[in-house]
Structures are given as structure tokens and as C-alpha cells.
Amino acid sequence: AQTVTQSQPEMSVQEAETVTLSCTYDTSESDYYLFWYKQPPSRQMILVIRQEAYKQQNATENRFSVNFQKAAKSFSLKISDSQLGDAAMYFCAWASGSRLTFGEGTQLTVNP
Amino acid sequence: NAGVTQTPKFQVLKTGQSMTLQCAQDMNHEYMSWYRQDPGMGLRLIHYSVGAGITDQGEVPNGYNVSRSTTEDFPLRLLSAAPSQTSVYFCASSYDRRSGANVLTFGAGSRLTVL
Q: Fewer Cβ in 10 A, N or C end of chain B?
């Protein structure tokens, strides 16, 4: 079975600074997708970024980027120029087909 | 378009009571699923459906039933609620069940408390 591990239950960052959230996963499949989802206090699940495993280039969405290390099965999220609105729970997820396996989540606090 | 609509948003039950969480999507999505979210455990898949008339179990199916009589609706039934089912429940859907590239659209969640 696939597993996704987020080893940092809580992280904090100063506004305008950069923070990296860690994620590792375990799978025997070669074709899959990885995601980072954001869950603000409103509880809504919001897609932050998506990475196709067959692509070597790291995905980027504005201030959000990933460091995808396929051999190491690592998928970290970097948030640059952190803003107060980035404060949320962040979930890493793995998918082959539409079934997602989620990590435990990392609660990010942004300090003004 | 409304997207994925879940009702109710909040519910309190007594142990042994039954209830149904409703989920409806208006995007003609093939794939629909139910997750539960518990602190420190992320989201875990309960049941899913790849089309009308087809359902299957996820990671934590015990205590829950589902059916998919139409493309739009995917209700989750608790036949005899237990305190262990206290959780936040999310319904999610996507267009193509075959491709992981299709991003899930989530509902707003339903907080269930079982006393």
C-alpha cells in the first residue's frame, strides 16, 4: 500500500520569509502524481500545486514550488515571500488514478 | 456551477442513530469519493465510485454504506453511528477516474459529532 509521510506536524515562518514543508512517500509504481493541498480555517481543500512523476522539471505556481526527488521519493513544498494568507494546514498527497493517499498534514503559522 | 455540494455542514448524533450525508456535483464527473479527516491522520478514503451503479471500498469503509444511482449524487450512510465516527467528512469528485492528472474538486466538508 502507498504511504505518504509528513514529518513536520507544525511549522512557522516570518512574513516575507521562505519556508519548506517536507513530504516523503512510498510506492512501487512508476507512473503517478503528487499534490500539495492547502486547508485554511474555512476547511475548504484548495489545490496548491501538482507534479507528474514522469516529468523531471519541478512544478512551480507563483510563490509555490516543489523539489521533487523521484529516486528518494521526496516531494517538498517551498513557499517564498510568505504571506499571512498562507497560514493553513498543508497536505501532501499521492495518486495513481483518482484515488488520493494523503499525509498527516503540516500546520503552517505565518508570523507578522 | 455549484461544484460539489455537501449537506448538512454540521450534525450531532447519538450513538446508534442513523443518518445520511448528502453529496451532489453538477460537473458531470465520473468519479466521486468520500474521505474522513481526523487530527494527525490526514484524509482517509472511505468509499468511492467510478460511475453510476459502481462503488468500491476505500481504506476505512467499516460502518459506512454508499450507493450511486445517478451520476450527480453519492450519499454516505451511517447505519448505526458510533463515537469513533466523529470526524469531518469530505466528498470529492473528478472528471476521469482513469487519470490521476484530474484534480479532485472537494465539497466544503461536514462536521459530524457522535455522542
A: N
